[in-house]
C-alpha cells in the first residue's frame, strides 16, 4: 500500500511514521528501506484486502501515473470492501496484476467492480514465452522482442508457451505491459496458447484515462537507466570473477610446475 491516512490526509510514507489504513481502518507503519519502494504495512504482516499482492515498483509507477486522487481507492459494495488499484475520474477501475493469480480471484474481482474495470498485467515475467507476429501481412515475422516489431499497426497473432491458464476465462479487457512503449491489448485467446491482439501506445492509454504521461515517461526512463546500470555492474562483477579464476588457474599451474621441478 503506497498511501495511508495521516492527519486526515492521504500521504506517502516517511521513515518511522504511522498512519491508518483507508480500507480497514487498522494502524499501519511506514516501511522505508533501500531495496523496495517506500510503502505502508499492516501489523502482524496481515493485509486487510484478500486480493492484495506484494507491491512492486511496477505498481508504484502505474499508480503514481494516475495520481494520488485516483490510486488505491476504497470501494464498498454489499458489505464488501476492497481497494481498487486505480479508479479514474470517469469511474473506470484499472486493476494492476504483477504475479500469477487464481481463476477464482479473477472472477471475484470482475464481479465486484463490474463492467467498468479492466486488467493491466505485467508481462515482464513471461515475455520470453510470448511471441507476437503479423496476422494479416505476407510475412509472418516472428519476434519475441516486442519492441522490435516494425509494424505495430493492425491485428497481431500471438503464441504463448506455458500460458497462464487462470486467465482463460477472463471477462474484461486485458492489456499486457511488456516493458516497452506500447501495451498489448488481448482481443481473444487470453490465457491460452494462441490468440489475437493489438498494440496500443502507452501514451494513448494513459491520456485516455487522464493519467500523467510525462510522469510515466520520466519514471520509465529512470527505471531503464537503473536496469542498464544493474546489468553493467553484474557484467563487471562477472568479468572480475572470471579474470580472478583465470589468475588462480595460472597460479596453480605455476605451483605444479615448480613442484615437478623439485623432483
Ligand atoms: Zn487495512
UniProtKB/TrEMBL annotation:
Superkingdom classification of source: Bacteria
Native source organism of the sequence: Winogradskyella haliclonae
InterPro entries xref list: CoiA-like_N (IPR057253)
Pfam families for this protein: CoiA_N
Residues of the Competence protein CoiA-like N-terminal domain: 20-49
Name of the protein in question: Competence protein CoiA-like N-terminal domain-containing protein
Amino acid at each position: 500500500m503506497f498511501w495511508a491516512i495521516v492527519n486526515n490526509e492521504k500521504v506517502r510514507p516517511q521513515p518511522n511514521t504511522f498512519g491508518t489504513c483507508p480500507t480497514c481502518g487498522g494502524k499501519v507503519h511506514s516501511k522505508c528501506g533501500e531495496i523496495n519502494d517506500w510503502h505502508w504495512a499492516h501489523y502482524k504482516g496481515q493485509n486487510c484486502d484478500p486480493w492484495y499482492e506484494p507491491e512492486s515498483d511496477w505498481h508504484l509507477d502505474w499508480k503514481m501515473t494516475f495520481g494520488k486522487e485516483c490510486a488505491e481507492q476504497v470501494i464498498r459494495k454489499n458489505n464488501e470492501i476492497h481497494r481498487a488499484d486505480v479508479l479514474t475520474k470517469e469511474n473506470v477501475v484499472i486493476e494492476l496484476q504483477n504475479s500469477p493469480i487464481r481463476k477464482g480471484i479473477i472472477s471475484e474481482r470482475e464481479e465486484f467492480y463490474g463492467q467498468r474495470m479492466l486488467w493491466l498485467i505485467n508481462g515482464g515475467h513471461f515475455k520470453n514465452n510470448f511471441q507476437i507476429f503479423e496476422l494479416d501481412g505476407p510475412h509472418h515475422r516472428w519476434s519475441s522482442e516486442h519492441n522490435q516489431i516494425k509494424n505495430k499497426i493492425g491485428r497481431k497473432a500471438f503464441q504463448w508457451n506455458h500460458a497462464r491458464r487462470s486467465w482463460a476465462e477472463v471477462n474484461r479487457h486485458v492489456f499486457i505491459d511488456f516493458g516497452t512503449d506500447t501495451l498489448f491489448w488481448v482481443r481473444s485467446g487470453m490465457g491460452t496458447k494462441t490468440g489475437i491482439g493489438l498494440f496500443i501506445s502507452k501514451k494513448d492509454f494513459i491520456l485516455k484515462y487522464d493519467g500523467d504521461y510525462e510522469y510515466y515517461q520520466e519514471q520509465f526512463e529512470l527505471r531503464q537507466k537503473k536496469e542498464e546500470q544493474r546489468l553493467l555492474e553484474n557484467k563487471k562483477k562477472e568479468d572480475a570473477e572470471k579474470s580472478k579464476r583465470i589468475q588462480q588457474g595460472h597460479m596453480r599451474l605455476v605451483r605444479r610446475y615448480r613442484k615437478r621441478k623439485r623432483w
